[in-house]
Amino acid sequence: MGKKVTVVGAGFYGSTTAQRLAEYDVFDTVVITDIVEGKPAGLALDLNQSRPIEGFETKVVGVTTGPNGEGYEAIEGSDVVVITAGLPRKPGMSRMDLLETNAKIVRQVSENVAKYAPNAVVIVVSNPLDEMTALAQLATQFPKNRVLGQAGMLDTARFSNFVAEALNVPVKSVKTLTLGSHGDTMVPVPSKSTVNGKPLREVMPDGQIEELVVKTRNGGAEVVALLKTGSAYYAPSAAAAKMAKAVAEDSGEVMPVCAWVDGEYGISGVYLGVEAQIGAEGVKRVVETDLDADELNSLKEAAEAVRSKQADVANM
Ligand code: PYR
């Protein structure tokens, strides 16, 4: 059977994700849903009309969903569901300021996903990311490996881009890593970062690395402050679409994602940004990497910071 992916939410993040997924041409069908009347159908029409130009065969279907799950039949048989539903930040807001509003939305969406696409792998991108991922798992009751969140790829891409710009080298020559939360306790990992295979610490002074670490942590807020309405979507959708593709192709690619951690790094019982091998079942395994003592400490602090908030969402 052909592959099917659903993107819930037709804002900029959702629509750009749907576009990227369609243009990959690895899915038979991309379903995009929203509660706004007409918008997903209009986007689908427009995306399908780009098929002869871009040369992809994937069909895009746009569906408006109702408050009692009306329309959700369209997601039946989805291999992957990307949940983008929820409000984005406004300038000056932290992702955590969205907690209660987005928890209601993500819970309702997740319950419908569980009902209509019970075998799907769920990729959550709604903010606050680590908490919404935990909530989607609770609300779907899917096995924890089948629910993951997108953030580490985005934060890693931001770090890599800042390093490439600072050194004026191709982005291809830069490898970085960012773990931890998609929030204040984000953990960029200089000890695992290289430029043309050389350790970042050998090609950039510590002070400059620290500046880029801080810039990476503020990467999303910097975009929000400039856009004034809405948050980033080009880099976030590139990351979410890559994850969905890895699931569809059962690629086994190792990516930084928000995954359930069960003993790795001495941390247990929490959704946290770590590297994981991604495939048809979602997270095949969490991949533990050597961190220096400070980085490991920061990762453990991140785990404790998100743990209490993830406990709160159970009642939201
Ligand atoms: C970000 O741009 O970081 C988001 O969380 C969307």
TrEMBL record:
Query: One MF term from GO for this chain?
Result: L-lactate dehydrogenase (NAD+) activity
The reaction(s) annotated as catalysed by this protein in its Swiss-Prot or TrEMBL entry are: (S)-lactate + NAD(+) = pyruvate + NADH + H(+)
The chain positions of domain Lactate/malate dehydrogenase N-terminal read 4-149
Q: Which residues cross the membrane?
A: none
The active site consists of: 182 (proton acceptor)
Known CDD domains for this protein?
A: LDH-like_MDH
Keywords, comma-separated and alphabetical: NAD, Oxidoreductase, Tricarboxylic acid cycle
Q: Which GO terms describe its biological process?
A: lactate metabolic process; tricarboxylic acid cycle
| Matching InterPro entries | L-lactate/malate_DH, Lactate/malate_DH_C, Lactate/malate_DH_N, Lactate_DH/Glyco_Ohase_4_C, Malate_DH_type3, NAD(P)-bd_dom_sf
Q: Does the record bear Oxidoreductase in its keywords? A: yes
Q: What's its EC?
A: 1.1.1.27
Q: Where is the Lactate/malate dehydrogenase C-terminal domain positioned along the sequence?
A: 154-311
Annotated NAD(+) binding sites: 9-14, 34, 102, 125-127
Gene3D superfamilies associated with the record: Lactate dehydrogenase/glycoside hydrolase, family 4, C-terminal, NAD(P)-binding Rossmann-like Domain
Enzyme class, broadest EC rank: oxidoreductase
Q: Which one Pfam family would you cite for this protein?
A: Ldh_1_C
- Give binding positions for substrate: 89, 95, 127, 158
NCBIfam families, per database record = MalateDH_bact, PRK06223.1
Report the family membership: Belongs to the LDH/MDH superfamily. LDH family.
Protein name in the entry: L-lactate dehydrogenase
Species name? Micromonospora avicenniae
